[in-house]
Specification:
There is one protein chain. The chain contains five helices and 14 strands. It has one domain: Lipovitellin-phosvitin complex, beta-sheet shell regions. Helix 2 packs antiparallel against helix 3, helix 3 packs across helix 4 and helix 4 packs parallel to helix 5. By secondary structure, the protein is an alpha+beta fold. The termini are far apart. Strands 2, 3, 4, 5, 6, 7, 9, 10, 11, 12, 13 and 14 form a twelve-stranded antiparallel β-sheet that branches.
């Protein structure tokens, strides 16, 4: 009997030692907490048509506010608000195609009016504790507001404007965009060196494998590699690409919110345009995105 009790004690101690150093990573947010994130993105799109190369460079610099409104049924209700947004697009053939600073409104500049209307208009997000964005409300209303700010009056032009804006700022588009930043945690306990996978879908799909690289009392470091696919079909245009991306993350252990994230991606495939007789255009997209928590 004494031997049996001793074995139970040894087993208990062994189990405790195995469990030491493990933690369940997830979001732990408090009502009225506010997280300010600086987003920077650099994207180069290269297309080759009959030996002629066309390169488009996009640069985005934005300031995002995430405010925790409360918790409901085990998920967090959060508002996402654009506090600033600067966008520049340069074509190797046509020169500068866009240069907008949302806070600097110009009366004779439609793009300036549109993107200024984006600011300070909260969008509601339901966030699971894993970071999965379960729903987004308000994106479609935001698109309508932006289209109205364009000053266009005829219904056909407004419809085209809304369709274009919806691809970037509609509810589904915003969910797909920012899930890349939030959806990083598994539903299991981890120790340093453990790995896990998740998948998010939309026009951009990704299957990610994550690794817990470091863990201490205040921070967690995670790296990830993913297989990505892009399948976009618009009136007159299609784009199908596949590739990979690499992610590095430092997050606050207590809240689960990122402090810094960088995503580097490279994809290639084809695009077609009806105005070119649906000719296949080899296309490559190289992207670098960073998210920095502003303290």
């Amino acid at each position: 009997m004494a031997m049996k009790i001793t074995m139970y004690i040894v087993f208990f101690l062994f189990s405790a030692l195995v469990g030491f150093g493990q933690t369940t990573l997830s979001y732990h947010l408090e009502k009225n907490e506010v997280f300010m994130i600086r987003q920077k993105a650099h994207q180069v799109i290269t297309q080759n048509l009959d030996g002629a190369e066309h390169e488009i460079t996009n640069d985005i610099d934005g300031l995002l506010e995430f405010k925790v409104m409360g918790e409901k049924e085990g998920n967090y209700e959060i508002t996402l608000t654009f506090k600033d947004l600067n966008m520049k697009m340069i074509s190797s053939l046509q020169g500068e195609m866009m240069n907008v600073r949302a806070k600097e409104v110009k009366k004779d500049d439609m793009q300036s009016q549109i993107f200024n209307s984006l600011l300070d208009s909260p969008i509601e997000i339901t966030l699971a504790k894993t970071g999965d964005i379960l729903s987004v409300m308000g994106g479609d209303s935001l698109v309508a507001k932006m289209a109205k700010a364009s000053g266009l009056t005829d219904e056909f032009s407004l419809h085209l404007m809304k369709k274009s804006l919806s691809d970037e700022f509609g509810s589904e588009a915003l969910s797909n965009s920012y899930e890349q930043m939030t959806f990083i945690y598994p539903e299991k306990a981890l120790k340093v060196g453990d790995s896990w996978e998740n998948v998010y879908e939309g026009k951009l799909t990704a299957k990610n494998k994550w690794v817990l690289n470091a863990l201490n009392n205040s921070h967690v470091e995670i790296s990830g590699r993913g297989q990505v696919g892009m399948d976009v079909t618009e009136p007159g245009t299609t784009m199908k690409l596949e590739g990979t991306h690499v992610t590095e993350i430092t997050a606050d252990l207590n809240s689960g919110f990122i402090e810094f994230m960088k995503v580097e991606g490279l994809s290639d495939g084809i695009a077609t345009m009806e105005q070119l007789g649906k000719q296949v255009i080899p296309t490559t997209i190289k992207t670098s995105i960073s998210y920095q928590l502003i303290k």
